[in-house]
Amino acid sequence: MAEYTGRIVEYLSSGSLEMGLVTTQSASKLQLTNVHGRNLSLAPRQIVIVHPERTDLAGLAEQAREIESAVDALHRDVDTELLWESLEGREGPFAVEELAAEYFGESG
Questions:
Q1: How far apart are CA 52 and CA 6, in angstroms?
Q2: What is the largest CA-CA distance in the chain?
Q3: What whole-number distance in Å separates Cα of residue 100 and Cα of residue 108?
Q4: What is the CA 19 to chain-centroid distance, rounded?
Q5: pLDDT tens track of the chain, all 108 residues?
Q6: Strands, E, within the chain: which ranges?
Q7: CA nearest neighbour of 102 among 86, 80, 79, 81
Q8: DSSP secondary structure code for residue 45 in this structure
């Protein structure tokens, strides 16, 4: 299993993406604290996005705001219709990294 400790991740909660910091990790579970301060236990398969930056609980709120700002800026620039047209004829499902590489030329 990948090393998630100290990374900000996004996971689905009630149909929307939530952000949290993985504080500890075992063979089958991740312990994390979400941006609202709630402690959770998740299976690694529940993680949708893993951000490359590492931080700690003290830096979680600021780092989460920075990520959200960057995502919002990119969201305004993405033409989803063009993206789906470029994928026409290809079979999915597609990973987020694949979609980013297709649209931006890189997956970072």
A1: 10
A2: 46
A3: 8
A4: 7
A5: 688 999 999 998 888 899 999 999 998 999 999 999 999 999 999 998 999 889 999 999 999 999 999 888 878 888 888 888 988 888 878 887 888 888 888 776
A6: 7-13, 16-25, 30-34, 39-42, 47-54
A7: 86
A8: G
Q: What pLDDT, in 10s, does the model give residues 41-55? A: 999 999 989 998 899
Distance CA 36, CA 73 (A): 23
Sequence letter at residue 83: L
**Which residue type is seen at 55?**
T
Could you tell me which residues come within 8 angstroms of residue 27 by beta carbon, excluding any fewer than 6 positions away? 1
As a whole number of angstroms, the distance between CA 29 and CA 43 comes to 5
Sequence letter at residue 71? V
* The residue to which tokens 């620039």 are assigned: 77
> What DSSP state is assigned to residue 37?
S
Please measure the distance between the N-terminal and C-terminal CA atoms of the chain and give it in whole angstroms: 21
